[in-house]
Amino acid sequence: MAGAGGGVGGTPPGALKEGRQSGSVLPTSLEASGLKKSGWGLLLTGIVGGTLVAVYAVATPFITPALRRICLPFVPATAKQIENVVEMLRSRRGPLVDVGSGDGRIVIAAAKEGFVAAGYELNPWLVWYSRYRAWREGVQDLATFYISDLWKVTFSQYSNVVVFGVPQMMPHLEKKLEVELEGDARVIACRFPFPNWTPDQVTGEGTDTVWAYDVSTFQRKRRDALTDGRCASSRSLKNKMY
Ligand SMILES: C[S@@+](CC[C@H](N)C(=O)[O-])C[C@H]1O[C@@H](n2cnc3c(N)ncnc32)[C@H](O)[C@@H]1O
Where do Gly residues bias regions lie (predicted)? Predict the structure, then answer.
């Protein structure tokens, strides 16, 4: 008779109990440890992925300027260079701009000298850091920073233009500033001079050399050259006529 024990051919109660234990408890613990493992795996993937995204987000703005047609990487001005720039600004007035302002050190130094100063910089991290530095130094009312491509900005409103560029960009910037700047403006170049202008003042040496160019000087030279050219052509015309 098939009894409570499960009858003939049935599974013995003890065996059933053991089976239930082995059929439910063991897989559950395996499942739990599997879940635990996949939890750690997910966390690790999240950490690695997050770190990679953060590194990418921070590093990209520093790398992209080097990949542009004109490669202008972030190389901060030295303390001596800043000192030389400030010297070139003595007895100058009016708004100042640093073209490619990096971490804002030149703009902040100028603001400390009382200039209303602005910086244009492609790298947003550097702009945010510059704003923080200006605030920390207490010149946030005089120093303004823009996330902007220097080639897309018109500098006509500035009387003092500072640039720490690279030789490759100087001929293009020279042409741009010649068109945009007013006659009373001064351009200050750090480390690399402009190729065609003649400096009105030079200070420092080696990599800390700074050149100052007064727009009035190169405008006068251009006018003189034009007049000379016109005189020469009218002289040659006269010679041909007589
Ligand atoms: C040589 S660093 C000079 C930094 C700062 N002026 C100084 O003297 O410490 C040149 C800066 O120009 C920025 N830059 C490069 N290309 C730019 C562009 N097209 N527009 C604005 N800034 C640019 C770079 O990110 C870098 O911070």
Answer: 1-12
Q: Looking at per-residue confidence, does 213 or 20 come out higher?
A: 213
60 Cβ inside 6 Å of ligand 1: no
Query: 122 phi and psi, to 5 degrees?
Result: -80, -30
Distances in Å between the alpha carbon of 135 and those of 102, 139, 166?
Answer: 16, 6, 29
Tokens encoding 198: 């003649």
First vs last C-alpha separation in the chain = 146
The phi-psi region of residue 14 (left if phi > 0; otherwise alpha if psi is between -120 and 50; otherwise beta) is alpha
Atom of ligand 1 nearest to the CA of 102: 27
* SS (HEC) of 46-84: HHHHHHHHHHHHHHHHHHHHHHCCCCCCCCCCCHHHHHH
Q: Is the pLDDT of residue 241 over 80?
A: no
Q: Does ligand 1 lie within 6 Å of residue 65's CB atom?
A: yes
As a whole number, the mean pLDDT across the chain is 86
Q: 54 CA distance to ligand 1 centroid (A)?
A: 22
Evaluate: CB of 123 within 6 angstroms of ligand 1: yes
Regarding the beta carbon of 74 and ligand 1, being less than 6 Å apart is answered: yes
The CA distance from 144 to 188, in Å, is 19
Q: Beta-carbon neighbour count of residue 5 at 10 Å? A: 12
Specify the ligand 1 atom closest to the Cα of 162. Answer: 6
- 79-224 CATH: 3.40.50.150
CA 109 to chain centre: 18
Domain spans of the chain? 36-67, 79-224
